[in-house]
Amino acid sequence: MKKMQQMYEGKAKKVYATDDPNLVIVDYKDDATAFNGEKKGTISGKGLINNRVTNHLMQMLETHGIPTHFVEELSERETLVKRVAIIPLEVIVRNTAAGSFSKRFGVEEGRKLSSPTLEFCLKDDALGDPMINDYHILALDIATREELDRISSYTFQINRVLTDYFKQRGIDLIDFKIEFGKTPDGTIVLADEISPDTCRFWDSTTHEKLDKDRFRRDLGGEQEAYQEILRRVIG
Ligand code: UDP
Question: Which of 98, 125, 70 has the alpha carbon at shortest distance from 211?
């Protein structure tokens, strides 16, 4: 597989074309951003960890019937994935109140929710990723009813699988954000990443934060926290 010209550079990853028009290479960076890019830094080793954690989880989810964009890990930081059109939605699941949910509803962080919640944000940095509902998504032709139903059912299934998986490794999955893409034949697949950048992970016994909140909130120890997640995921 030949790595060709860079197609895109995001906050945490670069994407390269390959000699196969249906495949691209993602290359994970150590750059970290928060608050819609206002806070910038680097977490040494993050690219490698997020690449390996994402790939491990995507392959595990595939065994549970979730289609993903994953094709092959190429190196410590690079992975071959299916080329998809990203559906511009951040799909967020919450099991426990934290972050913007706690702020918005005045609920203390750490309150276990009676049922998992699902929310969508429009992926648009210039607009600050505003929350968007099903009606808006349909009215703006961002997805069809069928696509939205499929995304929602995959998402709750992903939540069940990931929650169990992390529970067995001494981690509470507080919340997470995922993204979906559409292949040329219209198949919806899980895309982007699942990592400490995009999930809140709390140690089940100490409740220590093992995710990007260490960077967002200047708690320190972000390298060690990311390393710990890799260790528990890969075993
Ligand atoms: N999240 C993300 N990217 C975003 C916004 C949120 O990966 O642009 C993740 C975040 O890491 C957390 C979950 O989605 O696991 C819920 O985030 P929240 O809405 O509480 O926003 P935050 O407090 O991170 O601003």
Answer: 98
The residue among 124, 128, 131, 123 whose CA lies nearest residue 101 is 131
CA gap 4, 20 in Å, rounded: 10
Alpha-carbon distance of 183 to 166, in angstroms, equals: 29
> pTM above 0.85?
yes
Provide φ and ψ at 168, rounded to 5°.
-65, -20
Nearest alpha carbon, ligand 1 atom 23: 99
- Half-sphere CA count of 212, side-chain side, radius 13 A: 27
* Residue pLDDT, tens place only, 72-131: 999 999 999 999 999 999 999 999 999 999 999 999 999 999 999 999 999 999 999 999
- How much distance in Å is there from the Cα of 112 to the middle of ligand 1? 17
CB-CB contact of 48 with 42 (8 Å)? no
